[in-house]
Write a structure and sequence with these properties.
By secondary structure, the chain is mainly alpha-helical. It contains 11 helices and 4 strands, in the order ααααββαββαααααα. Helix content is about 65%, strand content about 5%. It has a two-stranded antiparallel ribbon.
Length: about 270
């Protein structure tokens, strides 16, 4: 089931894009993004709204087109926030638009990924991890994080592969930074064994029964995502059994991986402090 551009997002775009674009540049923007059909013969606000609703009706993946439409507004550097005109401060409409756009995307549980991608895989665990990644110099994790969200709707097999790679990357970085002995075979399960032992993730050592269940669940998440990548992702060839992988399956793997990575990084910080 395709994810349409939410009405609140359409409202914000219809309010600001006509202010920032001429008729000609507005047409070029929508054609660049891959919007279907010819430009509507209407005023700029009406044209923008009609074209956005047409995208929802006729496009297979409206969020892909949305990402290209807002790419320049999200990624290009802004000028000074305000301009002085005969002693009167004139608000910067581009900055106002960017701030409101980011707010409404967040409210609609959408996540913008650099390069012109909008994903509905950015629920709470992913957003929290995104914020945490920004405070660290870990490009390998950031790259796989972005890939998992970019591909969740269009290529769920790729997204599952990226979700597993995030786990592997975190475990290997932890082993390197803590100076631990690397396992002979550096696959997901073996690097995970080294990390969980060093962080003390052993249900047998925990007295609280409920926490034991949670820790046991963490082990199952790693096992499950690793098996998921092996059998259903793009990381390996298909056998006789063909998995009918849907975006919802990919989102489950992504959110599980992101939640676990958050817990690993926070536990690591706590250990260091």
């Amino acid at each position: 089931m395709k994810k349409e551009i939410p009405s609140p997002v359409i409202a914000v775009l219809s309010e600001y894009i006509p202010i920032l674009q001429t008729h000609a540049t507005l047409d070029n923007l929508f054609m660049y993004a891959g919007a279907p059909g010819d430009p509507p013969e209407e005023s700029k606000p009406a044209k923008t709204q009609i074209w956005l609703r047409r995208i929802n009706q006729e496009s297979d993946n409206p969020l892909n087109i949305l990402g290209k439409l807002i790419e320049c507004y999200i990624e290009l550097p802004l000028e000074n926030e305000e301009k002085d005109f005969f002693g009167v401060n004139i608000p910067n409409k581009r900055k106002e638009f960017k701030d409101k756009l980011e707010l409404i995307l967040n409210r609609c549980n959408l996540n913008y990924v650099n390069g012109g991608f909008v994903s509905d895989g950015g629920a709470s665990p992913s957003k929290s991890l995104s914020d945490l990644i920004k405070t660290r110099d870990i490009p390998a994790i950031e790259s796989e994080f972005n890939r998992s969200l970019e591909k969740v709707n269009t290529e769920p097999r790729e997204a599952v592969s990226a979700a597993c790679n995030i786990l592997e990357s975190v475990f290997k970085i932890y082993i390197d930074d803590e100076g631990l002995t690397k396992p002979t075979k550096q696959d997901l399960q073996n690097v995970w064994k080294v990390v969980r032992a060093d962080l003390g993730f052993n249900p047998k050592l925990v007295q609280d029964d409920d926490l034991k269940k949670v820790l046991s669940g963490i082990f199952s998440i790693v096992d499950g995502i690793g098996a998921f990548r092996t059998h259903a992702s793009s990381a390996h060839g298909e056998g006789r059994k063909l998995y009918n992988l849907k975006p919802r399956h990919a989102r489950l793997a992504i959110h599980s991986a992101h939640t676990l990575v958050m817990f690993i990084l926070e536990t690591w910080d706590d250990k260091r402090s």
